[in-house]
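Chapter summary example.
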Amino acid sequence: MTVELREKIGVCNEYERLLEASHRAMRTWNERRMIICESGATGRARDLQLLTEQAKYAKAQAQLQKHIRECVRCQFATAMRERVEAEESRIESQTRH
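The structure predicted for these 97 residues follows.
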């Protein structure tokens, strides 16, 4: 997506960065969880590894949510998306009847 297009539709660069960090943390957590579970490892060390990855994901997700609450551009984009979705839903329900 070009910078010009991002600006037109209200995509925030910081939001994109935080979203990617959240996705990356989730992928890492899932991958490590699968590796640990498949290895048959048990005990405190395994639990700490899983909790550490889960905490990294939770932190990344919390940072993303905080940004969405505080960023005027993201709030505007969310409001516009909600309006478009509501209008699409209204039109769809009218065409059914």
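To summarize the output: Helices lie at 3-9, 13-39, 44-70, 72-96.
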